[in-house]
Amino acid sequence: MKNSIGALLFALLFGLAVGGQFGCVDRSVDPLTVTLVPSVTSGVAPLTVSFAAERTGGRSAFDFNWSFGDGVDATGQSVSHSFTQGGSYTVTLHASDSGGRTAVDSVVIEVTGNDPPLIAVSAVPTGGIAPLDVDLRCEVAQGEGPFSFVWQFGDGHAASVQHPEHTFDEPGVYSVVVLATDATGETVSAITQITVGSDFTPGLQISAAPMSGIAPLEVQFDSTVHGGNEPLTYAWDFSNDQQIDAEIPTPRHLFETAGEYPVRLSLTDADGDQVEDTLTVTVSEDTSPTVTATATPESGPAPLTASFNCQVTDGNPPFEYLWQFGDDNESTLPSTLHNYTEIGTYSAICTVIDADGDASSDNIVIEVLDPDTGTD
Fold first, then answer.
1. Residues with Cβ < 8 Å from 204, sequence gap 6 or more?
2. Which residues pair with 168 in a beta bridge?
3. Do strands 102-112 and 42-44 pair parallel, antiparallel, or not at all (unpaired)?
4. I need a labelling partner for 130 at 20 to 30 A (CA). Which of 46, 59, 236, 298 fits?
5. Which 3 state secondary structure label does DSSP give 55?
6. What is the CATH number of domain 203-284?
7. Which residues contact 54 (CB under 8 A, 6 or more apart)?
8. CATH number, span 118-197
């Protein structure tokens, strides 16, 4: 009986020893647990994260195997990994001890893609006369805020705000550059150009064609400008009533009634310099000419040389003249000499045509006498 009890005890002790060697769990060791601890759980690519494995229980030695969810693995209780692309990554930690115990933990890392900033720069105004005040703006899209800004105005001055104001004191063409940097260090640039001119006072001369004529009279006006700072503003007054009748450099205007019209152009340049020029347009009524023909002498012996004169009142100049001396000879001068060689009585006629085609005439009788008898 004693031998049986002894054998049973031996068998139990042997089984425990063999079980410990061949995979039976040692119930005296605490269960293995592991906690995955990341330094951050979100950020902008490239995002570098430090990971630590906090363990409890289990039997030394321990193995720690990491899978970062982007095809990269690592081992060790503390590791670091860089996520270069945006995305959602499940990081898994597998821990095991020398007794075959295992534990698992995981965490999700959110990585935002690092798109570089997009910027647009604007300026109001983009040109003008020195000193010129300009409002500048830099609008930002994409990128990771907050942003920083550096402006270079091209005149030795700078600013570090998003929307600066700047005064350009001297004439010139300025290339204004802005650099925008986001939170990840991505930097982009944009450029705009500001043109600053000198203050030139304009010079002005106006002209008209025609400057006189019969009502209704259509007149083409023109203006010649020297200097000044564009844009230029034109203000024509055709009737001296202090009202603006046209606002272009070369207007046309119809004067419907007779009169003397002082025409004025006021010119203003971009910085307020103003000059004026005036001229007078003469518009006449449509009247027919009145003609008076005279001759000296009106009679005498042949050959007779007479001085003719054609006087005009009324009508609308310029005038055309035609003398018909009655002997098949003519002249187009208002005053002229004519020699009669034959004895006879001649009716000399002066015909006048004015600018708009009205015609009138007068005549005078010339007696050319026989030099021997004193008769014609």
1. 223, 224, 225, 226, 265, 267, 275, 276, 277
2. 132
3. parallel
4. 236
5. strand
6. 2.60.40.10
7. 34, 35, 37
8. 2.60.40.10
Neighbours of 233 (CB within 10 A): 12
CB neighbour list of residue 285: distance below 8 Å, 6 or more residues apart: 214, 215, 258
- Is residue 206 within 8 A of residue 233, CB to CB? The reply is no
Answer yes or no: is pLDDT of 300 > 80: yes
Task: State the pairing for strand pair 33-38/87-97.
Answer: unpaired
Tell me which H or E stretch contains 5.
helix 2-21
At residue 23, does pLDDT exceed 80? Answer: no
Copy the structure tokens of residue 263.
Answer: 């025409």
Q: Residue type at 162?
A: Q
Query: Residue ranges per domain, the chain?
Result: 33-112, 118-197, 203-284, 289-369
The pair of structure tokens assigned to 53 is 């494995």
Q: Is the pLDDT of residue 327 over 70?
A: yes
Question: What are the phi and psi torsion angles at 4 (to 5°)?
Answer: -65, -40
User: What residues have CB less than 8 Å from 266, skipping those under 6 apart?
Assistant: 234, 235, 237, 274, 275, 276
What pTM does this model have?
0.43
- CA–CA separation, 183 vs 202, rounded Å? 52
Q: How far apart are CA 38 and CA 336, in angstroms?
A: 121
